[in-house]
Amino acid sequence: MNIFKKQENTKNTAVTQTAALQKKIKEHASAIAAKAKSSYKSCTAKAHTLLQKAKHGGQSIKASAQQRCFTLHFSHKGTEKQLHCKRYHACIASALVLCAASFGIYTTVSYHQTQQQLMQSQSRLAQERDNNQNLSEQTEQLQVEKEEYMQNIEKIQEKAAELETKMAELEAQKKELSNQLTDLAAADTASADTCLSILNGTTPEKSFTNIVTTSYHQTEALASQLDKMNAMLDETGAEFTSVASDVTYTLAQQVSIPEGLPTSGYVSTEFNPDGDPAISDGRRHKGIDIATRHRVIPITATASGTVVESTYSSSYGNMVKIDHGNGFTTLYAHNSENLVEVGDTVTKGQEIAMSGSTGMSTGIHCHYEIQLNGIYQNPRDYQ
To answer: Which of 95, 99, 139, 250 is the most exposed place for a label (fewest CB within 10 A)?
Structure first.
């Protein structure tokens, strides 16, 4: 509600400021017009006064008029004409021209100033209108959000009422159960008294109440449920053993699948079994070369298995081949030294050789191959 009041107050303030600005513009324009009118009247009065003075002083200067005149000579088609003009007439005409020019300049400047102020006022008015429109849109959006909040509040209130009803029902059930437990306790006391009387040699009358009968049946039902739970636990234990065996087998299979690269470095030659000229140097390559930046570093097995070859080849140099027992074999070549022998069982991550440049090699690296059922695989797919 405070947000809506704030938006309404801002809107009213903007409207008030716009009206005051328009009123101020009108007052300023009226003042400029009145000032221009007053200046025009003043100039007219001064000109009229000068004319009156000239008219009344005509008698006094008539004698010397010839001395204060100047003559304009005109010639047109060989004909000369003369125009005599008195000096005081020229002064009056000059004064009138200056007054008219001053009035025109002042009026023009005032007009331009008024026009600029009017344009500024119109710009402010347009800005205020945009602000009012934005405020109206925000007000509408807030009104929609308010309605949504009210609807959500109503739903929450309904849910709260439902929860209160359910809590009341649960409280009633709790009281009922408490009463039943009290009755059961009393029934158990009566049963104990009956057993004591039998042990003492007395035969009480068989008078079983409904509560005792109910307690007996509930005890039997509880025993039956316990038997069912024991059977379910036995069945669940068997299923758990089977699942654990499956998980163990799956994990063993995962450990025997090659994963990652056997050493650190960067791949200098990619997998290219068909000799595609667009791949690396274009020559056939059944694995990848991992350059170790001129370092002799350990090479590790990418999966657990058994060493089936640890020998020297003229092309591969020192090489190690591991059978992983599930169709996968891996080969590590150009080693400077082999660290395992044929028949050794290795685990994933175990060091099996040192990188080198033996055999047909141009630099220290590790040539790494993967085969699945005799078919060469791209080691990139197993990273």
So the answer is: 250
Cα 132 to Cα 93: distance, rounded to the nearest angstrom: 57
pTM: 0.39
**CB count in 10 Å sphere of residue 321:** 19
Alpha-carbon gap, residue 310 to 323, rounded angstroms: 12
What's the 3-state SS for 273-332?
A: CCCCCCCCCCCCECCEEEECCCCCCEEECCCCEEEEEEEEECCCEEEEEEECCCCEEEEE
What are the backbone dihedrals phi and psi of residue 336, each rounded to the nearest 5 degrees, phi first? -80, -25
User: Which pair of structure tokens corresponds to residue 349?
Assistant: 């991550």
CA–CA distance, 94 with 35 (Å, rounded to integer): 24
Q: Is the pLDDT of residue 11 over 70?
A: no
Amino acid at 268: S
CA pair distance 257, 45, nearest whole angstrom: 115
Mean pLDDT across 55-63:
51
Identify the residue whose tokens are 């159960």.
Answer: 177
CA-to-CA distance for 33 and 73, rounded, in angstroms?
44
Segment holding 362, helix H or strand E: none
Of 95, 115, 13, nearest to 47 (Cα)?
Answer: 95
Tokens of 190: 């009566």
